């Protein structure tokens, strides 16, 4: 959010830092998510009411699929298959292709007029952002048809860990803190959230900007910008979203030091931040997974920034 804040950056300085290699993601609104799903572990139900219970490891998929047969035992097939994750391209929405092969039905005998097919397959693609919607074609000896599958429950974020990376370098950035987050899952999976999309909104807690004064050329900051991040954008950082930049830039720190009386320091600002994660594929739906507070404090020779209780101080100038 460079928030306190991203919009604090001078025009021309903020764009590359805000997007941080993700075109369109430094500002509110829609953002292309080039990160494809690389773990489809979970329970998927298709339009025929078949339940696919799958485990994903690398490009391999294993598990089972069960189909109810009213008045008869549920039939379960063994599943094997694979996923294919394409190369990432900033301007292309990520999408993972899959093939799930069902074989060895149990029981295999006819019951209620239904004879389990010996083998079948479902092939298609999984949408990112929510990582919970798939579409494709089901094929069996009886023919083929289009179908969709929904993952339920969608993987929930159990917690978010905030890590301070450092302060910026170069003109304008020396007082801006860089924070990197990792999403933690209940399963302990280190890549289950890759391909998900997270975004921020302003919370309902206390917000203030005690450095601002009437007539200030630096705007008052009491809301977040509403930025979006793609989890796993940097492939070596699974379940991470990168990065949240917090703090007034150096030009604005200088402005307040030059226009406020010495007794005004330290002055600070605080914004409640709500973090949301996408659900229901690329529909735009989100659900809140955590909330925190971001702050920045200007003193006569130092600047302090914090996110979710993780604080850092730097001397400036």
Fraction of residues in helix: under 10%
Please indicate the percent range of residues in DSSP E strands (runs of 2 or more). over 45%
Q: What is the CA-atom radius of gyration, in angstroms? A: 25 Å
Query: Strand pairing plus helix content: what structural class?
Result: mainly beta
Indicate the mean pLDDT.
91
What is the overall shape? elongated
Largest sheet entry: 8 strands, antiparallel, barrel
Distance N terminus to C terminus? Answer: 24 Å
Put simply, the count of helices is: 2
Could you give the count of β-strands? 18
Strand order of the largest sheet: 1-2-3-4-5-6-7-8
Contiguous runs where pLDDT drops below 50 for at least 5 residues: 1-21
Spell the H/E element sequence.
Answer: HEEEEEEEEEEEEEEHEEEE
Number of domains: 2
């Amino acid at each position: 959010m460079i928030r306190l804040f991203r919009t604090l950056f001078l025009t021309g300085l903020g764009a590359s830092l805000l997007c941080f290699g993700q075109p369109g993601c430094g500002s509110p609104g829609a953002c292309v998510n080039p990160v494809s799903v690389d773990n489809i572990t979970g329970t998927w139900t298709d339009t025929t009411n078949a339940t696919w219970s799958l485990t994903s490891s690398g490009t391999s998929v294993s598990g089972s699929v069960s189909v109810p047969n009213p008045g008869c035992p549920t039939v379960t097939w063994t599943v094997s298959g694979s996923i294919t994750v394409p190369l990432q391209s900033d301007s292309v929405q990520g999408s993972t292709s899959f093939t799930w092969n069902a074989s060895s039905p149990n029981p295999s005998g006819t019951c209620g007029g239904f004879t389990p097919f010996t083998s079948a397959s479902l092939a298609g693609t999984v949408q990112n952002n929510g990582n919970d919607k798939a579409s494709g074609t089901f094929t069996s000896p009886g023919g083929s048809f289009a179908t969709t599958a929904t993952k339920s429950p969608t993987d929930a974020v159990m917690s978010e860990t905030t890590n301070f990376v450092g302060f910026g370098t170069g003109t304008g950035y020396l007082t801006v803190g860089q924070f990197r987050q990792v999403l933690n899952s209940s399963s302990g999976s280190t890549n289950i959230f890759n391909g998900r999309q997270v975004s921020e909104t302003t919370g309902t807690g206390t917000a203030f900007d005690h450095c601002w004064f009437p007539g200030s050329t630096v705007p008052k900051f009491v809301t977040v910008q509403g930025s979006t991040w793609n989890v796993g954008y940097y492939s070596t950082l699974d379940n991470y979203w990168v990065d949240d930049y917090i703090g007034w830039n150096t030009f604005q720190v200088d402005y307040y030091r030059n226009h406020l009386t010495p007794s005004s320091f330290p002055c600070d600002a605080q914004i409640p931040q709500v973090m949301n994660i996408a659900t229901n594929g690329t529909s735009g739906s989100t659900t809140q997974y955590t909330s925190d507070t971001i702050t920045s404090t200007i003193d006569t020779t130092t600047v302090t920034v914090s996110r979710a209780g993780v604080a850092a101080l730097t001397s400036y100038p």
